[in-house]
Specification:
This protein has a single domain, classed as Four Helix Bundle (Hemerythrin (Met), subunit A). 77% of the residues lie in helices and 0% in strands. The protein has eight helices and no strands. GO terms for molecular function: metal ion binding; transmembrane ascorbate ferrireductase activity; transmembrane monodehydroascorbate reductase activity.
Length: 222
């Protein structure tokens, strides 16, 4: 039996809400699992995976999910409040990423190891640099008068698109990190595959959210 348009719409919203709820759980569960594995404080290196997981799995995911109409934890708040919380979470994510990058760089220096010679290291460095630029670019949304020749709608569109690229870079960096010797010797078998699914799931949810926002904005212009 064919579904009506209203039923399909309701089913689609329910699926998006379920996926968003799963993304919230993964965003918190993944860094929690990393903390158990790394045992922060047991070594200088142990802080690196935890800080990066907090930055790109928890803080950045929650910063983007804030604008989800189905799964935002601040749905009843005004957009102004959501923007401020988004900024705070993104800034915390950047600080965690910078600290994580500094720790692994110093740890390699202490152990006489080469810097940024793996795909994980290069992607991680690119991600942190890109995230820094993305946060700086967000200032123009807070103060759009600084960009006199750009409309606010266009600034929002470009910020969301570039933010998605940065988020995907962060997820790619996490996945490459799970291919490292430390992670593969600690997590094996099915658990490794489940861990790899975590950033994949959240990236799909965020991509869907951004693409829907883009389509809604495009329809509203016609």
């Amino acid at each position: 039996m064919a579904l009506t348009a209203e039923t399909e719409s309701r089913l689609y919203r329910s699926l998006r809400a379920a996926a968003g709820a799963a993304a919230h759980l993964v965003a918190l569960g993944f860094p929690t699992a990393v903390a158990v594995l790394a045992r922060p404080g047991s070594s200088l290196f142990s802080w690196h995976p935890l800080l990066m997981a907090l930055a790109f799995s928890f803080l950045m995911t929650e910063a983007l999910l804030i604008f989800s109409p189905e799964t935002s934890l601040l749905r009843s708040f005004s957009r102004k409040v959501k923007v401020r919380v988004h900024w705070a979470l993104q800034l915390l994510a950047l600080l965690c990423a910078l600290l994580g990058l500094g720790i692994i760089t110093y740890n390699k220096h202490l152990n006489g190891k080469a810097h940024f010679v793996t795909w994980h290291g290069l992607t991680g460095l690119l991600t942190v640099l890109y995230t820094s630029g993305q946060c700086a670019g967000g200032v123009f949304l807070l103060y759009p008068k600084l960009m006199k020749n750009w409309t606010l709608a266009k600034l929002k569109l470009y910020h969301a698109t570039s933010g998605l690229v940065g988020y995907l870079l962060g997820c790619a960096s996490l996945m490459l990190g799970m291919c490292s010797l430390w992670f593969t010797t600690t997590v094996t078998s099915v658990s490794w595959y489940l861990a790899m699914l975590c950033p994949l799931l959240t990236s799909l949810v965020i991509m869907n959210q951004v693409s829907n926002a883009y389509l809604y904005r495009k329809r509203s212009q016609h």
